[in-house]
UniProtKB/TrEMBL annotation:
Name the UniProt record assigns to this protein: Caspase family protein
Pfam families assigned to the protein according to its UniProt record, in alphabetical order: Peptidase_C14 (PF00656)
Organism the protein comes from: Bradyrhizobium frederickii
Transmembrane intervals: none
Gene Ontology MF term list: cysteine-type endopeptidase activity
InterPro entries given in the database record: Caspase-like_dom_sf (IPR029030), Caspase-related_regulators (IPR052039), Pept_C14_caspase (IPR011600), Pept_C14_p20 (IPR001309)
Domain Caspase family p20: 23-153
Annotated region described as Disordered, given as residue ranges: 320-346, 398-424, 540-575
Length: 605
């Protein structure tokens, strides 16, 4: 009986593998950062590389990543992709860059667009309908993801040829007419999206985390993406999905097949209900969950979520009460109420404001508790999943051993020989890991951008791998301890540079300047100090004059003349002293001065 069950499971796994291989999935990823007529966007090129890698890891048969496309390149890429979707079951287009809405129609903006007038939109951009036309031939799923809801700089400078023509903020709502078609916006219609402060936008980061979860339906996956983006942007950006799918689950990555049937997990039903209540996020949903599951790990998590909702309700009530108190204060002031009433209203307003602040603090505490509980839940689920996988592996090993024990010796040897042959064939045809399908110029541009980020390249990233770029890679090898060939830009060098979180090459400044972050600033010394040759402040030494022999002789002559000079003459009747004696000056007489000295001759009238 066990041998028959094992053979049936092997046959079922063969059929499942054949069905998976028969399903063809293709993706086109476009990221426009280097706009020529407006400021460069930092994230789209990084987001496109990240999302393209996600589709490759998800097992897509063909993933085409295109960066910084002009109008002709965008149209050619969509035309070529439409040819690949004719025999595909799943077709996905991801676009990151600028977009614009004109009279209710959405357009994707290439890097060479100028858009001086509203009429140029029809000639210089690519309509969103062109992307929908490209995915139309796919048989099972048609998915278009737009990370293009940024604040559009073209709309601020564009001239209107018709005053009544509407240019919207963000992108307009779209309702697909084809079945099994979904259009996901980074922000809902009429609003704009944020690039964030990280290397990737919040929307792209959430997509890469949620979409490739095995067996997770796309509608639920985009619901988790919405929750993640709302939290990361402070509830300012809400992604939105337009279109509809059928009743069956449509995962981007199929659930992993299980060879040996596992034992039913008693917490699987509770976990599923908990995730539904978490997605609903209301008091009624959590109350219904607790009524059904009053105790246990997930029940404690649900109580924490209820406390979080209660804190939010308390904060909202306090805010409303504060607003009412402020309105009452304004009303009393406008009606020239008595001073006592105004003071009472002011006190009530202050008390309400204090209550609001306390409620805000309580809400933050509950949110922190809920986040910590949610983290514990994820860790517990990961541990349970690992334990279940270990159990399944053990049961499979036991089944294999029992099956081998029941086979005759000759049949067992034949089976082992066939397994060795199959293993050899699989190893012979196993695909090797290949780098992304980028041109040498695009690869060089990515390596130059990363070298510039770590401080090894001072020039702009133009895609030309010249002598300056080679010196920059050589400088990176010196300070990072790597040995990449500087004559070419390789994906191995790109991965190694991306792995460095900050500056690698030191910043060199001229004399009198010092490094401050990524810039050179002038060194300023306080009064009495100056910058020396080592770029340090030192005190200025006062130079004392050196006495010479002539100076000494001059000072000696002046001293002798002073000692030989007589005292200053006095008026008549007073004493006058020279170098020999003192006597009174006669009336009507004076002492003459000759050659700067006093004469000994007395002159009288």
């Amino acid at each position: 009986m066990r041998l028959r069950l094992f053979v049936l499971l092997i046959i079922a796994s063969w059929f499942g593998t054949g069905a998976a291989l028969a399903e063809k999935r293709v993706a086109l990823v476009m990221g426009n950062s280097a706009y020529k007529n407006v400021a460069r966007l930092a994230n789209p090129a990084n987001d496109a590389a990240l999302v393209g890698g996600m589709f490759r890891k998800a097992g897509f048969d063909n993933v085409d990543v295109r960066l910084d496309l002009n109008a002709a390149d965008m149209r050619r890429s969509l035309r070529e992709f439409a040819g690949r979707t004719r025999d595909a079951e799943v077709a996905v287009i991801y676009y990151a860059g600028h977009g614009i809405e004109l009279d209710g129609t959405n357009y994707l903006i290439p890097t060479d667009a100028a858009l001086e007038t509203d009429g140029d939109v029809l000639d210089e951009t690519v309509a969103l309908d062109r992307a929908l036309f490209a995915v139309e031939p796919a048989k099972q799923l048609r998915l278009v993801i737009l990370d293009a809801c940024r604040d559009n700089p073209f709309a601020k400078t564009m001239k209107r040829t018709i005053a009544a023509r509407a240019i919207g903020r963000g992108l307009a709502k779209v309702e697909p007419t084809s079945p099994n078609t979904m259009i996901a916006f980074a922000a809902k219609a009429g609003s704009t999206a944020s690039d964030g402060d990280a290397k990737n936008s919040p929307f792209a980061a959430a997509l890469v985390e949620r979409l490739p979860m095995p067996g997770l339906d796309l509608r639920k996956a985009f619901g988790f993406v919405r929750d993640d983006v709302l939290k990361s942007t402070g509830y300012k950006q809400e992604p939105y999905v337009y279109g509809s799918l059928g009743g069956d689950d449509v995962p981007l990555v199929a659930a992993k097949p299980v060879v040996v049937g596992p034992q039913a997990n008693p917490d699987s039903e509770i976990r599923r209900d908990y995730e539904l209540a978490l997605q609903l996020g209301t008091r009624d949903g959590w109350t219904a969950f607790l009524n059904r599951f009053p105790s246990g790990f997930y029940s404690d998590l649900a109580k924490g979520q209820l406390n979080k909702i209660a804190a939010e309700e308390t904060r909202a009530a306090a805010a409303e009460k504060a607003r009412q108190a402020e309105d009452e204060k304004s009303r009393l002031a406008s009606e020239r109420a008595k001073k006592a009433e105004q003071e009472k209203a002011a006190a009530a307003a202050k008390a309400a404001e204090d209550a609001k602040a306390a409620a805000e603090k309580a809400k933050q505490i509950e949110e922190a508790k809920a986040a910590a509980a949610e983290q514990r839940r994820k860790e517990a689920e990961a541990a349970a999943a690992k334990a279940l996988a270990d159990k399944q592996a053990a049961e499979k090993a036991l089944a294999d051993r029992l099956a081998n024990d029941t086979k005759p010796a000759a049949e067992q040897r034949t089976t082992e020989k066939q397994q060795v042959t199959d293993t050899t064939k699989v190893a012979a045809v196993a695909p090797t890991s290949t780098p992304p399908s980028l041109s040498p110029q695009e690869t060089a541009k990515l390596v130059q951008s990363e070298l510039r980020r770590v401080g090894c390249l001072a020039e702009a990233a133009d895609g030309e791998w010249n002598a300056s770029s080679q010196r920059s890679l050589t400088l990176f090898n010196k300070y990072a301890g790597t040995t990449f060939d500087a004559k070419l830009a390789s994906f191995e060098a790109l991965d190694a540079i991306k792995a460095k979180p900050g500056r690698v090459c030191p910043l060199v400044c001229n004399r009198g300047f010092k490094a401050d972050g990524d810039a050179c600033v002038k060194i300023t010394c306080r009064a009495g100090y100056r910058v020396n040759d080592d770029n340090e402040c030192e005190k200025v030494q006062d130079k004392k004059p050196v006495a010479t022999r002539e100076d000494a002789k001059k000072r000696d002559t002046e001293r002798k003349q002073t000692e030989a000079a007589p005292s200053k003459p006095q008026s008549a009747g007073q004493m006058y002293c020279d170098t020999r004696t003192c006597r009174p000056v006669q009336k009507g007489c004076r002492i003459e001065i000759v050659n700067g000295q006093y004469s000994h001759r007395e002159v009288c009238n």
